[in-house]
Specification:
With 135 residues, this protein is mainly alpha-helical. The chain contains 4 helices and no strands. The chain binds protoporphyrin IX containing FE.
């Protein structure tokens, strides 16, 4: 019971984080590039990636707490997890870099940054499906 609750509450943070990283990047770009809100979207995306890293780690800790070990993942699941972790770290750093330096960037560079953030989110969400069904 407490175990299911712990996983469910972690999943709540994880699901909203996933929505924020993809939704934030998509709405910064579509239907038009909204440069004037670029920093607001970037903050949302940064917090989203941070939430993914934190809640992903809590998933691991919860398994460790209840089972004393990490789940025995298949090779496909392991690769999918690696894609997620890499996407989360790169996405977090890219959003932070834009927030630190982006004021000096031209329109094209900002657009490419949000396109890269959207691609990272799509890669992580795709990997999430493989992690779920191959573990
Ligand atoms: C440090 C990075 C991450 C770790 C350690 C991590 C870990 C996990 C774990 C352990 C699960 C539960 C898997 C299962 O039910 O078998 C999960 C589910 C999920 N993760 Fe992540 N995750 C990370 C990053 C991300 C990112 C960046 C996204 C999306 C942008 C994401 C999206 C999802 C989704 C949608 C699920 C639910 C999958 C389903 O049940 O169908 N995760 N994650």
């Amino acid at each position: 019971m407490s175990e299911n609750l712990a996983y469910a509450l972690t999943q709540v943070a994880h699901n909203f984080g996933a929505a924020a990283v993809l939704g934030g990047a998509v709405f910064a770009l579509w239907p038009v590039l909204r440069l004037e809100y670029g920093r607001s979207f970037a903050w949302l995306i940064l917090i989203g990636w941070g939430a993914q890293i934190a809640s992903g780690a809590v998933f691991g800790l919860t398994s460790f707490y209840y089972y004393g070990e990490m789940p025995d993942l298949s090779r496909v699941a392991m690769a999918a997890l690696a894609v997620k972790v890499a996407a989360a770290i790169v996405g977090f750093l890219l959003a932070a870099f834009y927030l630190a330096r982006g004021r000096e960037w031209d329109r094209v560079r900002v657009k490419h940054t949000f396109q890269a953030l959207a691609a990272l989110a799509a890669a992580a969400l795709t990997a999430a499906a493989f992690l779920r069904w191959f573990s």
